[in-house]
Q: What sequence folds into this?
């Protein structure tokens, strides 16, 4: 469906970002990967996606916390892959603490990567999309972009801001062949969350399956986790023709979290 389109996915060397990159590659997108990790492991991911799906793949190590490096990611994509059609802003970090204890440097880091980076990537990518008359921006927000939880001030603020940024970009590009939407996941079963579940089970002396259910039950009526693959499928849908008039939306994929 998206064969020949060129997609950038930030934070795509693991977890949700890798799930999205894989889904886009399966639809024929050429890919610019971005994220942290060991060089050899990243190269293995890049080569595997290219071979399995018959697409061109590249990698740029731009640090999303540094605004000066962001334009280079967009420029490298245009130079190496020939276009910038799809931008998925997925890179993110977390820090948990009460406001009175929240380190200022962690606030700055979370805001920089989870919110400001999306502004900088969109600003650099939009001229390419406007010139072509076609573009898709998908911002990976969170249920925490719509509701709040304690001890997550920076993350909640950033994700709420990302939903707002999504709406502004959608309004400004509404008649230029471009859409901009946000995906708002609840609990996602990534390797990082699986480790969290196992640590909880060990600490409480309970089975891993029970810890898995207990964790998701704290927020979601549906006792099931979203997967990176399902988020990838939703991102693919938002990039396709069927979603051409969906713009400025914050789409929940959260097991009923924000329905409560």
A:
């Amino acid at each position: 469906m998206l064969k020949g389109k060129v997609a950038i996915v930030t934070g795509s060397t693991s977890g949700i970002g890798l799930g999205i990159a894989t889904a886009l590659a399966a639809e024929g997108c050429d890919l610019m990967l971005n994220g942290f990790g060991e060089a050899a492991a990243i190269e293995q991911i890049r080569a595997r996606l290219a071979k399995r799906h018959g697409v061109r793949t590249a990698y740029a190590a731009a640090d999303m916390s540094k605004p000066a490096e962001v334009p280079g990611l967009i420029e490298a994509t245009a130079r190496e892959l020939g276009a910038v059609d799809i931008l998925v802003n997925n890179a993110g970090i977390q820090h948990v603490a009460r406001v009175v204890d929240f380190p200022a440097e962690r606030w700055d880091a979370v805001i920089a990567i989870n919110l400001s980076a999306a502004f900088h990537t969109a600003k650099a990518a939009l001229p390419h999309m406007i010139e072509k008359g076609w573009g898709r921006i998908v911002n990976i927000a969170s249920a925490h972009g719509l509701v709040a939880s304690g001890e997550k001030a920076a993350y909640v603020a950033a994700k709420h801001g990302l939903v707002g940024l999504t709406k502004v970009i959608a309004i400004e590009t509404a008649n230029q062949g471009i859409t901009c939407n946000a995906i708002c996941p609840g609990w996602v079963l990534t390797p990082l969350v699986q480790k969290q579940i196992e640590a909880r089970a060990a600490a409480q002396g309970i089975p891993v399956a029970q810890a898995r259910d207990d964790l998701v039950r704290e927020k979601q009526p549906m006792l099931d986790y979203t997967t990176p693959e399902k988020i990838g499928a939703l991102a693919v849908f938002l990039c396709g023709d069927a979603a051409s008039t969906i713009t400025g939306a914050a789409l929940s994929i959260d097991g009923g979290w924000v329905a409560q």
